[in-house]
Amino acid sequence: MTDLQVQHISSRDNALLKDLRRLAQDNTGYRKQGRFWAEGEHLVSAALSRQVRPALGVFSKSFWPLAPVEYAQSAIKNIVIPDSFFATISGLESPAQMGFVFDLPLLAALQPQLASVILDRVQDAGNVGSILRSASAFGFKQIIALKGTAALWSPKVLRAGMGAHWGLQLIEGVALADLARLAVPIVVTSSHRGACLHEAIFKQELPMPCAWALGHEGQGVSFELEALAALHVRIAQPGGEESLNVAAAAAICLHASAAAGL
User: Fold this and answer.
1) Is residue 176 within 8 Å of 216, Cβ to Cβ?
2) What are phi and psi of 174, to 5 degrees?
3) For residue 129, how many other CB atoms are within 10 A of its CB?
4) Which of 67, 117, 159, 190 is 20 to 30 Å from 38 at the Cα level?
5) 46-62: per-residue pLDDT in tens?
6) Of 12, 43, 19, nearest to 33 (Cα)?
7) Is 58 helix (H, G, I), strand (E, B) or coil?
8) Is 250 helix (H, G, I), strand (E, B) or coil?
9) Tell me, what DSSP letter sits at residue 189?
10) Is the dihedral of CA 141, 144, 149, 150 positive or negative?
């Protein structure tokens, strides 16, 4: 690499470094800056594979000479910082030594006909990221996050999503009334209400496309959202557990719908 491709930063008080720390450590910092932070080669390569170009490449001094050419040449601008500085930015116990800053996508309009997942106050970042991965895998391309759901572009959700973000349309801060625009049926999963999922599959009652509604880890889907459902289903649990983790339930339900639509 040559210095013509990169700016070296050596001051801890550099304003750009302060912005990077906020992006990496503040779950909602991206909303203020209009950009988000993605750390590590897996997220970076996932973005590049979908032709998403970063605004800024950030490399530790030790990694920069080893950085693949496609990483170094993909960003509009690159900076190299001492390894100790990178550690103060990273939200990981073992910093990945490189990351990209991306411009936040423009606010998307809700697509009424699109197979969707509705997140109703799902608050754990790991659960949200896992649900996004399942949604992308099973063809549910629109994520509708109601108010109270974990920030979709936060560093923790991005890491848990493992690159799924770049294949999805994400809409945050949606009000319940906005769901009236959906032209696909809403399906709600519950631990106590509705037909068993396997019975709905057997009877070919699962609609596709549809919008699966997944609720708060403890409280489940709100009564108001339940009232909008065209179908309620529950997942049979012959082992006797009280309930499933919301991300596990999502994977089961989304796979079932995808298989029904084949």
Assistant:
1) no
2) -75, 140
3) 22
4) 117
5) 999 999 999 999 999 99
6) 19
7) strand
8) helix
9) E
10) positive
Query: Are the beta carbons of 254 and 212 closer than 8 angstroms?
Result: yes
| pTM score, whole prediction | 0.92
- Structure-token pair, residue 94: 């073992």
Distant-in-sequence contacts of 218-226, Cβ < 8 A, 24+ apart: 219/121, 220/190, 220/191, 221/120, 221/188, 221/189, 221/190, 222/120, 222/121, 222/176, 224/176, 225/118, 225/120, 225/146, 225/176, 225/179, 225/186, 225/188, 226/188, 226/190
Edge-to-edge, what's the strand order for the sheet holding 195-196?
Answer: 169-174, 142-146, 116-120, 211-215, 186-189, 231-234, 195-196
Task: For the chain, list residues with pLDDT below 50.
Answer: 1-4
The whole-number pLDDT of residue 236 equals 86
Token look-up 């919008």 returns 211
pLDDT of residue 157: 97
How far CA 28 is from CA of 99, 219, 224, 237, in Å, comes to: 18, 24, 27, 36
Return the closest-CA partner of residue 169 out of 117, 216, 126, 128.
Answer: 117
Pairing assessment for the beta strands 98-103 and 56-60 based on DSSP bridges: antiparallel
Cα–Cα distance between 27 and 146 in angstroms, integer?
Answer: 17
| C-alpha to C-alpha distance for 185 and 10, rounded to whole angstroms | 55
